[in-house]
Amino acid sequence: MASDRIAHAGLAAKCRSAEEAAAMITDGMTVGMSGFTGAGYPKAVPIALAARMTAAHDAGDPFRVKVWTGASTGPELDGALAKADGVEFRLPYNSDPIARERINRGEMQYFDMHLSQVAPMAWQGFLGELDVAVVEVTGITSDGQLIPSASVGNNKTWLDRAKGVILEVNRWQNAALEGMHDIYYGTALPPHRVPIPLVRADQRIGQPTFRCAPDKVIAVVETDAPDRNAPFTPPDAAAHAIAGHLLDFLAHEVHVGRLPASLLPLQSGVGNIANAVLTGLIDAPFENMIAYTEVIQDGMLDLLDSGKLRMASATAFSLSPDAAARLNADMGRYHDKLILRPQEISNHPELIRRLGCVSMNGLIEADIYGNVNSTHVMGSRIQNGIGGSGDFARNAYLSIFMTPSTAKQGAISAIVPHVSHTDHINQDVQVIVTEQGLADLRGLAPRQRAEAIIAHCAHPDYRPALRDYFARAMAGSFGLQSPMLPGEALAWHQRYMDSGTMRS
Amino acid sequence: MASDRIAHAGLAAKCRSAEEAAAMITDGMTVGMSGFTGAGYPKAVPIALAARMTAAHDAGDPFRVKVWTGASTGPELDGALAKADGVEFRLPYNSDPIARERINRGEMQYFDMHLSQVAPMAWQGFLGELDVAVVEVTGITSDGQLIPSASVGNNKTWLDRAKGVILEVNRWQNAALEGMHDIYYGTALPPHRVPIPLVRADQRIGQPTFRCAPDKVIAVVETDAPDRNAPFTPPDAAAHAIAGHLLDFLAHEVHVGRLPASLLPLQSGVGNIANAVLTGLIDAPFENMIAYTEVIQDGMLDLLDSGKLRMASATAFSLSPDAAARLNADMGRYHDKLILRPQEISNHPELIRRLGCVSMNGLIEADIYGNVNSTHVMGSRIQNGIGGSGDFARNAYLSIFMTPSTAKQGAISAIVPHVSHTDHINQDVQVIVTEQGLADLRGLAPRQRAEAIIAHCAHPDYRPALRDYFARAMAGSFGLQSPMLPGEALAWHQRYMDSGTMRS
Fold first, then answer.
1. Is B324 helix (H, G, I), strand (E, B) or coil?
2. Is B1 a residue whose pLDDT tops 80?
3. For chain A, which has fewer Cβ within 10 Å, the N-terminal or C-terminal residue?
């Protein structure tokens, strides 16, 4: 008998086991799954699918699929399918360690995309057809509308584009999520696109549910399983120092009149540095703040609780177990303070530029000119992916990147002569902050940027080598707009690969 | 006595010589000049200013200014001021050879910017104050409105932001330009930004003239001097081959239903390859095309004349002397087919994504993963600047880059193991075309992109070395998402610097 979460009789009649549903997915298919940063991903069907893949492989038969999602998911999806070697192609973002290993061993094709572009590109058609959507929802209304789960991601597009839809109705998700979402149905392919009518981060422009023709639904699977909520890593001294420099800078910008006292809509990446900044904002002299971001992390919730943050718009939750429990216990209180939107809206360049976001993201390395590598360790090994950082950094009112100045106990400098891979060109990087200090690069030409970054951001242990490289580049470069010695520019990376340290 | 181009008595009374006007600009000032690709730049005041600078330098006195423009200008502006060593800082784009030399000798700070961001960043304030605007106009109406010239660029912003305004009224510009411009006055700083109400390239959303409070005008200078119109370089065999591959691809996209038969709004860079593509479109099976682009070049005019292009929206003209004469002789006929807008509108990410532009730009080099360098020869010597290519490439419906596969008689390969500088990350590069062929990179992961680019785009002479590098990178890379050998990735560039060729 179907649960009370499934109020539509026709869909209740389609309840199947995860194994029965997974059997509808076959070798070579393209599958669009829900999920964004470990929230709202399907938890039963992918595991059952992985079991079928393993069985097929054991029998000598091929069984791999193409997997599209919102962003990262959980071990029950990316981990299970990667472990079964069942993923031939993956987009647009991954943070699962098993999948990461497969990708970096060359066993899985990974198309690392701007998150705002996934839905429109799926509509464009060059990615091919979408065979099946597997989408977690909180419930199904009596008229067949779908109540979204803890992330929205690309679900609207998967439901619209897929030939068949498998729904996971997860009763673990709080029923009070209903009404928190804002699903905008006004997108189109050109020449039929119109302005997106959002002018404030707290505005609703859509409807609270997904539409999905019931006859497209090929199976409904009931689940009762928690999201993957990664434990919270408390900020360390470096994170606090970075937050301190950044908060001083924001206060200065308010003081000189370049930012309002409520700042502008905040976008924040995840991790302990981001959390230190958000927590630091609780005691900072800014009131009535608002967030227009990708995910709601612990620090964002703390900031809401403090009363300093008025509301937050995002596409997903990304909470620790403690914070998830806090949210769940008191969902009603957050109801008017949180809006979850499709990622093509949360990350839309049109909206990010219009709202004027203050964008704060992490990086792997930056070079002396402020080009940023967010994705590839030593230029080749992907960590996670570009995610939404490009959507925000290029269109933000203020584009800030943060990192400790070294990694691996000082063996890696986050400031290098030349980035080994570029995700954010220097034009899109306005401020770099490390525990050493902050470089305000706005309006500076490349040689001026180099002076500022070496002086303010690099670790003192690496400053002499950076200054030495820059001085020699000034003498031996082909041109002096962005002085460079090609034969040596990436030597620090090669040295790390050869000797385990960038130090010479 | 003021000319009939100056119908406002108060402004007519402010007529001065270029020398008198130039004397209002002093050492250390920031000057916003009109001009975009050699059209509509001031032609008298900068020369008089350069003379004053030279005289000051001869007397041992400092005299340098910061120069902001729309994009490139003419020899009478960038050339004259650079020759006088009168420019301390320049933004956002330059193509003048004398200024380029100064920049690449490290004698001038050059802030190379996304063209859509110049006006909003000038409003943000971190670039500092704008002391004087020097703007060429076609005429002044009786109520003091300014009739724009052959480019719009950032003129609206310079007129609004500058403390004092010097107008050059150039009677060489065709009086029939009046009414061709669309100046949108709806922009603002956040949190006051609203949707830009443009949904079709041929739509007018503003007014035909600039507003400028007459009491801000400190001088009016009458001129009668032509724009710099560079002679047209006829397309060579490589350009025709590139155009052929690209037109076949567009026809295929129409055939499979991914583009309408009228295509989508075209954006095209300048140069003989772009002209070959535009000319090729005359005989291609597409009707009722439209352009939403930066500049109107010869090929665009030919395409208009053919009846295949319905209209073109841009921010400036960039015509050969012949084409300029043709346009001038018959301006009335083009009146309804051309719209010139501020560059913050012609290049606005919101509009480029909404309209779904088909974007076609040149490059200096691309690497095997499709990262593109548009600006820095050998990673350090700037050629021109990023211009609007980033605005278009990231937001286009279809982002295409074109180049001959080699340069310098084969001594330089346009396809390299690793770009020496990145302007366009691989996510923003969907199609690369050389005379060898076309690589459709949409939806491909990095290793797949490498195979396609080497096979279809690289010159056969360089293919073995690229395949050899890629194979060795597959064996020796830190990770295999984007295989790379940091110690060798830029060796081709160093070899060219050392020996004059990338060939080993």
1. helix
2. no
3. N
- Determine the Cα–Cα distance for residues B22 and B27; give it in Å rounded to an integer: 11
Q: Kindly provide the ipTM of the predicted complex, given to two decimals.
A: 0.98
The answer to whether B427 and B375 have CB atoms below 8 angstroms apart is: no
Cβ B189–A356 below 8 Å, yes or no? yes
Question: What are A83-133's pLDDT values in tens digits?
Answer: 999 999 999 999 999 999 999 999 999 999 999 999 999 999 999 999 999
For B405-487, list the strands marked E by DSSP: 406-407, 412-413, 415-416, 431-434, 437-440
- For chain A positions 341-400, those within 8 Å of chain B (CB to CB) are 349-350, 353-356, 371, 376-382, 386, 390, 394-395, 397
Instruction: Given the residues A294, A344, A365, A435, select the one marked as catalytic.
Output: A294
- Residues of A within 8 A of B487 (CB-CB) are 490-491, 493-494
Cβ distance A375 to A101 under 8 Å? Answer: no
Nearest CA in chain A to B107: A480
The C-alpha of B393 sits at a distance from chain A's nearest C-alpha, in angstroms, of 12
Backbone angles phi, psi at B312, to 5 degrees: -135, 135
Q: Is B294 known to be catalytic?
A: yes
Does B251 contact chain A (CB < 8 Å)? no
Name the stretches of chain A with pLDDT < 50: none
Separation CA B370–CA B367 (nearest Å): 5
Indicate the burial class of A332 (C-beta count within 10 angstroms; 0-12, 13-18, 19 or more): exposed
Q: Among B203, B478, B485, B494, which would you mutate to test the A interface (most chain A Cβ atoms within 10 Å of its Cβ)?
A: B478
Residue B135, min C-alpha distance to chain A (Å): 23
Distance CA B47, CA A346 (A): 49
CA distance A504 to A494: 11
Q: How many CB atoms lie within 10 A of CB B104?
A: 23
**What is the DSSP annotation of A295-342?**
EEEHHHHHHHHHTSEEEEEESEEE--HHHHHHHHHTHHHHTTTEEE--
Instruction: Note whether B194 contacts A199, CB cutoff 8 Å.
Output: yes
Quick check: B380 and A420 CB within 8 A? no
